[in-house]
Design a protein that fits this description.
Blueprint (H helix, E strand, L loop, with lengths): L3 H7 L2 E5 L8 H11 L3 E5 L5 E2 L2 E2 L13 E4 L3 H13 L4 E4 L6 H10 L2 E3 L4 H7 L7
Parallel strand pairs: 1-2, 1-5, 5-6, 6-7
Antiparallel strand pairs: 3-4
C-alpha cells in the first residue's frame, strides 16, 4: 500500500463525499485547499448543486469521469458504504478524514486492492510535504 503522501501526490482527480457549502466547516475548507493547490476536486453532496464552481453530484456513481481518490467527510458509520461505492466506480484510493475510521471499510479496500487511509487530514498531509499539483 502506498503512503498517504504518495496517494495524494499521484491523485489528479479527488471526489469529496460530504463536501459542505459552509466555509467554516472542514468539509468545505479542506477540499478548497486542495483545489487551490491544483487538484481537480469534485464535490459529492445530494443537497448542493454547485461548490467551488464545480457541479456537485449526489452520489459517486454519477460522476462522469475517472476518480483517483475518494476523500470522505462523513461519519464513521457511513464510511463502509462510501468505500463500497468508491470500489464500484474504480477509484484507486479512499481517504477517510481525521476522526473517521472504519475497520470494515479498510477490509473492503484491502480485498479490492485499493489504497486506504483513515483518521488523517488531506490538508495536513499536503501542507506537511508542501505538495502541489500546480504546474
Amino acid at each position: 500500500m502506498r503512503s498517504p503522501r504518495d496517494i495524494l501526490c499521484d491523485a489528479l482527480t479527488i471526489a469529496v463525499v460530504g463536501a459542505s457549502r459552509y466555509p467554516e466547516k472542514a468539509a468545505h475548507s479542506v477540499p478548497y485547499q486542495l483545489l487551490k493547490h491544483g487538484w481537480r476536486v469534485i464535490p459529492v453532496n445530494p443537497n448542493v448543486e454547485e461548490l467551488w464552481g464545480e457541479r456537485c453530484y449526489p452520489v459517486l456513481a454519477e460522476i462522469p469521469e475517472p476518480v483517483d481518490l475518494v476523500n470522505v467527510f462523513r461519519p464513521s458509520e457511513d464510511a463502509t458504504d462510501v468505500v463500497r461505492q468508491a470500489i464500484e466506480i474504480g477509484a484507486r484510493a479512499v481517504w477517510l478524514q481525521q476522526g473517521i475510521v472504519s475497520p470494515q471499510g479498510r477490509k473492503m479496500a484491502e480485498t479490492a486492492g485499493i489504497d486506504y487511509v483513515e483518521d488523517q487530514c488531506t490538508a495536513v498531509v499536503r501542507a506537511a510535504y508542501a505538495l502541489t499539483r500546480l504546474t
